[in-house]
């Protein structure tokens, strides 16, 4: 299921990043926990009233070099392309400006919901002063103060109400996967090699909100249905902003949101880069299955150590992805390409795996006898019971005497026990402590 995308738009200095931070802090459960993923203020996963969404601050997309008016225009267009709900921010301490009108003109072109937020409404008088903004034509203005945090909850209510209704009539049972990676690593070549290989394409689906083309096909050998999520294509439209790195990261995030399994493609000639870590970290945080594909393997001179060395490099660079299988491929020589769909399918099953409570509690008993639970400040962690509450990814609740006592290291130990006992290759797993009354 795709996560709705919410974009903040408005002229510079209007308070976008203040509001961005407010929404994230206000919200209280950011899903990100990997260093390096949130540093960039352009996106974050958040949720409100139990509904998850991805927040984009279009002001964070660097377009330096472009004149201000072009920047604002591009940012509004990115919002239209990428978002399901657009939050248009204006300044309540002046009246409508020429720039507000310019942004509005661009936003009129979309059928997507646009919610008008009047920022810097710091006190009651200013909150009364919002009526000017009806002239922009986006319905009721919502007074907020990013600085003080007032009105943010009501704004979030409006945002969540505007989310598209998930179309469940077409509940799609195919295995959705994508190739994510920097330019030129060989994504298109891998897609073509896999689609070209005696597999019947069922349909090309126009992305509903974005113009990505996803390809649904039947794999005869595995007798399974797949959907290849498109990540390339887009850049070819030739808009200015499409060549910026942050924009290409945003595109990758949309594809990751739609995927069950993400193949992170690296170029064997170049090794690992910061951007690779960032997108892989996002896939991990989003609970997606991850496979690392080292492509262009044909270009390396190999000896006994080449593969092992590369693997060590990857394990070092992507420490939180120790569970991800690594595949060394050549799209041009056809090396190990067959293994990609097989592995995708296996990782899909692992991410969907459900373990019975009785079996889990046997494991728990064994685990706590191998490594006694820690004592913190004189108090011992007690784990009474463990049960699986979700799949995709597998999520376990452990009932404990005190949440604070379940430290990272013991949690990791339990995860390793789970991985040693069951096949969770390629999928993240989550453990949530709950205090038993
Ligand atoms: N009085 C008042 N000031 C605010 C409020 N929200 C933001 N500001 C101030 O407005 C200025 C701009 O805020 P930012 O959040 O950096 O604005 P931005 O839209 O992200 O700016 P760009 O990065 O240029 O796009 C800062 O000095 C904030 O402190 C508010 O609700 N009331
Ligand atoms: N030697 C070698 N070259 C490859 C391999 N895979 C792709 N290439 C070449 O690398 C270049 C880029 O391949 P693409 O498939 O277009 O890469 P991409 O990741 O889709 O690139 P963007 O569309 O720019 O994101 C092409 O010249 C390919 O022929 C491979 O396994 N080995």
UniProtKB/TrEMBL annotation:
<feature type="domain" description="EngA-type G">
    <location>
        <begin position="175"/>
        <end position="352"/>
    </location>
</feature>
<dbReference type="InterPro" id="IPR031166">
    <property type="entry name" value="G_ENGA"/>
</dbReference>
<dbReference type="Pfam" id="PF01926">
    <property type="entry name" value="MMR_HSR1"/>
</dbReference>
<keyword id="KW-0677">Repeat</keyword>
<comment type="function">
    <text>GTPase that plays an essential role in the late steps of ribosome biogenesis.</text>
</comment>
<feature type="binding site">
    <location>
        <begin position="57"/>
        <end position="61"/>
    </location>
    <ligand>
        <name>GTP 1</name>
    </ligand>
</feature>
<keyword id="KW-0690">Ribosome biogenesis</keyword>
<feature type="binding site">
    <location>
        <begin position="119"/>
        <end position="122"/>
    </location>
    <ligand>
        <name>GTP 1</name>
    </ligand>
</feature>
<keyword id="KW-0342">GTP-binding</keyword>
<dbReference type="GO" id="GO:0005525">
    <property type="term" value="F:GTP binding"/>
</dbReference>
<dbReference type="Pfam" id="PF14714">
    <property type="entry name" value="KH_dom-like"/>
</dbReference>
<comment type="similarity">
    <text>Belongs to the TRAFAC class TrmE-Era-EngA-EngB-Septin-like GTPase superfamily. EngA (Der) GTPase family.</text>
</comment>
<dbReference type="InterPro" id="IPR006073">
    <property type="entry name" value="GTP-bd"/>
</dbReference>
<feature type="binding site">
    <location>
        <begin position="181"/>
        <end position="188"/>
    </location>
    <ligand>
        <name>GTP 2</name>
    </ligand>
</feature>
<dbReference type="GO" id="GO:0043022">
    <property type="term" value="F:ribosome binding"/>
</dbReference>
<keyword id="KW-0547">Nucleotide-binding</keyword>
<dbReference type="GO" id="GO:0042254">
    <property type="term" value="P:ribosome biogenesis"/>
</dbReference>
<feature type="binding site">
    <location>
        <begin position="230"/>
        <end position="234"/>
    </location>
    <ligand>
        <name>GTP 2</name>
    </ligand>
</feature>
<comment type="subunit">
    <text>Associates with the 50S ribosomal subunit.</text>
</comment>
<dbReference type="InterPro" id="IPR005225">
    <property type="entry name" value="Small_GTP-bd"/>
</dbReference>
<dbReference type="InterPro" id="IPR027417">
    <property type="entry name" value="P-loop_NTPase"/>
</dbReference>
<dbReference type="InterPro" id="IPR016484">
    <property type="entry name" value="GTPase_Der"/>
</dbReference>
<feature type="domain" description="EngA-type G">
    <location>
        <begin position="4"/>
        <end position="167"/>
    </location>
</feature>
<dbReference type="InterPro" id="IPR032859">
    <property type="entry name" value="KH_dom-like"/>
</dbReference>
<dbReference type="InterPro" id="IPR015946">
    <property type="entry name" value="KH_dom-like_a/b"/>
</dbReference>
<protein>
    <recommendedName>
        <fullName>GTPase Der</fullName>
    </recommendedName>
</protein>
<feature type="binding site">
    <location>
        <begin position="295"/>
        <end position="298"/>
    </location>
    <ligand>
        <name>GTP 2</name>
    </ligand>
</feature>
